[in-house]
Each structure stands twice: as structure tokens, then as C-alpha cells.
Amino acid sequence: xxxxxxxxxxxxxxxxxxxxxxxxGDDLNSLSxxxxxxxxxxxxxxxxxxxxxxxxxxxxxxxxxxxxxxDATHYEFNEETGKLSVFMPxxxxxxxxxxxxxxxxxxxxxxxxxxxxxxxxGIKTKMVIWTKVxxxxxxxxxxxxxxxxxxxxxxxxxxxxRDGITIEKF
Length: 170
Prior knowledge:
This protein is α+β, with helices and mostly antiparallel strands and about 170 residues long. It contains two helices and ten strands, in the order ααββββββββββ. The chain has helices at about 1-45, 55-60, and strands at about 75, 85, 90-95, 100-115, 115-125, 130, 135-140, 140-145, 150-155, 165.
């Protein structure tokens, strides 16, 4: 009986330790990504390459300037591939004029093209439950959010930069 309890206890301890180590690894990867992004931004600033502010970039691509929270720290944009990475200091939620809510991870990645941000990772919207947003497109006075289903919202609600509210979980 002692041997069985020892094996069960060892297994349980091993599983807990693996889970904790995995969590530490995820935290280190997130920190590494943030540091890497910040370093690139700093090097470009020192070189004298001033980056277009994120709202201006979104406007150039015919998207609403207030899609991302005001406190987005910086972004990286590869003009050749269209890959856009936006960094936030913490996971947050933003409420908009039309009563919709978006939840942002600390890093949002997508592919920017005229009138559309596609293949998005890191944004959710509240429908009945929190649902992953996979694309945002713009057509005239409407923004279309694809989150399981394509849903239109008034573009006007997203034309103003808003503050994010820090939350615990994405």
C-alpha cells in the first residue's frame, strides 16, 4: 500500500511541477517577446527612424483609428508581408461607444491590408461568450468583425482612442 501511495504522490507532484514549469516558461517567452519588441523600437528610434503612430497607420489602411487601446506601447509592421504586431502593457478590455467590448492580449498579431486586418491572434469580443476575433474589415461607415460569424458595427464607435481596463485573464 505504501508503494502505491508513493507512486501516486510522486505522479501528482511530477504533474504539478510540470504545470508550474510550463507556466514559468510561458511567462519567460512573453517577457522575451516584449523585450525584443521594445529593443527593436528603441534601436529604430536611436537610428532616427521615427515610426508612424499606430492610429495613423490604421488610417492609411482605411481602418478606424481607435480599434486598439490608447495604451498600446508600440507596434511592428512589415510592409512587405503586411504582418502587424501590436503590444500592450497588460491584458485589457476596451468598451466602445456602441456598447461593444474587445479584449486584448499583451500581443496582437494580424496581417494588414487596405481596409482589413486578417488572421488576427490576440483579440476577443463578447457575444454570448468571449469569442476570438479572426478579422476586422472596413466598408464605408461599417466595421465588420469576424468572430465565428461576421458581424457589422458602426465604424463611428471605433474612431476615438479609448483606454483599456487591465484584467487578469485573456
